[in-house]
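Task card 7
Instruction: Convert sequence to structure tokens.
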Amino acid sequence: MPPSTKNHLELREYANSHGTDVSPVNRHDKKLVKSEGRKTGDVQSNALDKRSSPFIYVKYGDWSVVWRNVIIFTILHLLYFYAVYLLLKEGRYKPWLLGWWFALWGGMGITAGAHRLWSHKSYKARLPLRIFLMLGQCIAGQNDLYTWCRDHRVHHKFSETDADPHNSLRGYFFAHMGWLLMKKHPDVMTKGKQVELHDLLADPVIRFQRKFYIPLFLMFAFIFPTALSVYLFNETWKFAFFSAGILRYVTSLHCTWFVNSTAHMFGGRPYNEKINPRENVWVSFGAFGEGYHNYHHTFPWDYATSEFSFGVNVSKLFIDAMAFIGQAYDLKRVPKHYVVDRKHKISAKSEH
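Output:
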């Protein structure tokens, strides 16, 4: 059980004693930490003052579009709309339903794996679970684990600044998917080098996936679900590919992207009013519990990413189930009374 946390210093000691590196991951409570010699609350306030259009501002100077990515995502979305048309026209839904079982596996690979396990070290996992989550992350197809975790740690350390890969202050579209269509801001590259990453490559599972990511992605994201649909349901290869592969893949991408866009712009801020991330239960529906974003950016080492033990949080239930069978352990949680006390203070401030 966590210690009785009576002050900020004790909470920091609690997090550090449980193997959570507080300083390089979340810096939004200016009473807890300082980043780059500046109070993060002040950085947030300055960034908010400079905000222009909340939806269409996507550049940091001259346009720097990565046209290869624009073409790839354009083709991918055209295929997606064709897949929707094909599904509705044919009216055969078994491959589509099978695709959603793969979506659940892929979702756990992102939320319980890349995010809560490897990026934030909010719990530990034994080898079989790490392999399962690694393969799920291949299904999700959001770059290899090392790259995903690197970008996410940089996002937390420099959130809503030019060093944030998907800085929401550059507009909704940029935070959602525009950041993947443009060259990274120079600050992302320079300040990103300050983030500790050695622990990632110390895991042989990550090293293996990084080496063989492309074939693993193609196999588990498309070939495996397509072939399984053909074998189980006697489907055509074309229909199986579009219904079990393309439909699932593009939809799951947007469910993850909504965390970076919608959950940074719409919702309440009961835990820290000085940061952009919000509590958005609708995002949690699509992202398996990742919508409690104000809480998560305030307490990134909490494996539940939410104050509540129950709710729209499939990822927490999965981790709890893995802990029950001994595959997950050392689950980190913020002391309840500290969270309640913090909410009361925020609420009292808003009333004055």
